[in-house]
Each structure stands twice: as structure tokens, then as C-alpha cells.
Amino acid sequence: MSRVAIVTDSASDLTEQQAASAGITIVPLLVTFGEREYRAGVDLSAEDFWRELTAPGAPFPKTAATAPGTFNEAFESLFAGGAEEIVYVGVASKLSATVGSAIVARDMTPERKIHIVDSNTASMGVGLLAMVASETAATGASGDEVVASVEARRDKIKLYVVLETLEYLKRGGRISPARAAIGGVLSVKPIITLDDGVVETADRPRTRGRARERLLELIAATKPERIAILHGQAADVEDFAAEVAKVTGLPRERMTLNLIGASVGPHVGPGAYGAVAVTMPA
């Protein structure tokens, strides 16, 4: 184990294999479907989440932040295993109270060296920053140096996702029923992004084809160092990944392909797809 252990949360959408390979510990957010509560990625896989979400008559899921006690248990386990410092890279605090819970857990043991980084992003935006942290820690860097490496790339993260439907933004309270109805009539396929932890609309193409073209334009303009392809069970995501490789010049084998999980999925809905790009720091 590196002397600096890396922690993230399930909103990162890292797979279990990706996290294990990078030595990253994932703490789960909570997801409820009606009376059923799950720990994302523990009791409920990303695949199971989508089956639940799209089941006929399924209640709309709700997400909740990780409890401070869960963070405390994870932190203490890592220190017991030999870690000298911990760096936690968390989902944007403007989207979830999870970073706040991590801060409470850190303050339970002020003698420990626990660093908290608000990623200001979500899904594999968090995941890629956690991987940067892991790679930096593996070089023998200190906790402060790991944090500096992550923060140097934090403002270089670009996340773009095309929505197949506005229904899930409506059900999650992100847009009004009237806006959703108008968008449906006009066949709008919005491209959403995150700006300083806030969900924004990057563009509102009127057709599926134009949305694809515009998404590729936005991704190509990032001049990426690394890319993660995201999707909510989108049918042609491999074709999309090949198109991203073509417009960016980044080899397909250097891109990850991640199914959006239970912490982000309720807001984007099935059929959504997009990418997170990280550019080199200046």
C-alpha cells in the first residue's frame, strides 16, 4: 500500500475492478426505491440499478449522502492497514452532502492526516480525479502533493452528457413539467454539463443526430489527456467511443467505458451517453 491511501465515493462510477486495480477505496452513497434501501455498488450494482429504474411501475429512486460513521470506518481501516495519510476525492458538494460527511469524519480524529478534496464534478469526473490521485500517491508523493495534483486537474474536467429524455430531470425536480413537455414536443436532446459543481445546459440540439454531432464537437475541443465514456444503457455506446477516438486522436484502448451508476443515473435516465475529458494542467 502507498503511504497515502485514496478514497472516493460511489458517485464516481468507478467499477469495482478499476478501483481495486488502482488501490482506491469506495464508500457507498445510499439509494432508495420506495421502502427498499441500498448501498450503491455494495447491495446494488449499476446493472441492477438500471433494471430497478426501468421496471414497470418502479418508484422514482432517491439518493442520500454517505454517513460520517461510514467514512470513519473506512478511514480507520486504511490507517490500521498501514496508511499514513488519506486523500478523499468526493462528488461535488453542490450536488451531495457527502463531502460534508467526510469532513465530519475527518474532524472526529484531528490527529490523523486526512485530506478532503471537493471534485466539483460527478460520475467519472470524480473517478478520473481519484485515479490521478492514486497514480500520484504511487510515486511516493505526500498527501499535500497528491491534493495539489488533483486540484491542478480539477478545473480541467469537462463532462458532457446527451439525454435521451427529459422525463428523469422532471421526476427528479431538476426542471419543471412544462419545460419537459415543451422539450418533448420539440424533440430536444439536451446536452448537460457541470460548471463548478452545478448542472448546466451546454446546448439544446433538436434531433438525435445533431446532438451526437454537437457532443463530439464539444469533446474534441477539450484536447483531452484522458477520457471516460459514460452511458445509461445506451445501445450504441461502443460506436460512440470509436467516434470519440477519431475526433480526439486518443486511442480507444486508453479510454474507459463506464455504466452510470445509482448515484447519478436517476437524473439522466436510460439512453443517456457522453464523456468526461481531462486536459493536461498548464
Describe the structure.
There is one protein chain. This protein has 282 residues and is an alpha/beta fold. It folds into two domains: 4-29 and 65-154, Dihydroxyacetone kinase, domain 1 (Rossmann fold), CATH 3.40.50; 157-278, Hypothetical Protein Tm841, Chain: A,domain 3 (2-Layer Sandwich), CATH 3.30.1180. It has eleven helices and 13 strands. A six-stranded mixed β-sheet has the order 10-9-8-13-11-12, with helices on both faces. A four-stranded parallel β-sheet has the order 2-1-6-7, sandwiched between helices. A three-stranded antiparallel β-sheet has the order 4-3-5, with no helix packed on it. The radius of gyration is 18 Å and the shape is globular.
Question: Looking across the biggest beta sheet, what order are the strands in?
Answer: 10-9-8-13-11-12
| CATH architecture annotation name of the largest domain | 2-Layer Sandwich
Number of domains: 2
CATH class of the largest domain: Alpha Beta
Radius of gyration, in angstroms, nearest whole number: 18 Å
Number of strands: 13
User: Which fold does the CATH topology of the largest domain refer to?
Assistant: Hypothetical Protein Tm841, Chain: A,domain 3
Note poorly predicted spans. 174-186
Q: What are the key terms here?
A:
globular; 39% helix; 2 domains; alpha/beta; 11 helices; 4-stranded parallel sheet; Hypothetical Protein Tm841, Chain: A,domain 3; 282 residues; Rossmann fold; 13 strands; 6-stranded mixed sheet
